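Appendix C reproduces, verbatim, an entry submitted by the partner laboratory led by Prof. M.T., so that reviewers can inspect both the input and the predicted structure.
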Amino acid sequence: MTTIHTIERRPRAASAGPPPLLIMLHGYGSNERDLFDLGEYLDPRLHIVSARGVLNLGFGFAWYHLGGAPGNLVPDPETRARARDLLAKFVADLPGRLGTDPWHTYLLGFSQGAVMSLALAAHEPARLAGVIPLSGYLDPDSLDAPLPAAIADLPILQIHGTEDEVIPIAAARRTRDALAPLARRHTYQEYPVGHTISMDGLMLVRDWLAERLAT
């Protein structure tokens, strides 16, 4: 594992206090630029940091190794656990390094990045103001313990495509059902698309973040 390489977009509009922070986590085989341009559609008060996965695959980067095949991917528990611990420290330290509001740190992850976002939310929900897992799921095998009580107050926006050929919609629905008894502020939305972020989904993310920042 290495230090986490990032690119960032500074706020385009001022906040009343320190700016809110949005951390983006890309999917398997991609890189830190994959989600970065989505920031153009989001609230201009956000300080956006897009992080590169810690494993160099040669054709892109990843947070942990995968086996199996699309539709039945098998995570490597050792590299995933190490990535979660490294990301937990990264997320905790970033507001102090950037001068952002430590009470307004949001995670947005796609695919493997969404899996990591939900793993962090389950690990230490009190550090986060909101989590946006796109085309991902919460893997029970990634949990050290039952979901903490603090996840009840964590805003979560979960979006998935019903035609997803990489991470089947069944995985997203299992996550929805697992969170339902505990996470009071969990929003779940499906769209008739594959393993991608639709424009409708992006507009929902935009509005959801704007609503969070208004409170």
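The chain has one domain: 6-213. Additional entries are available on request from the coordinating office.
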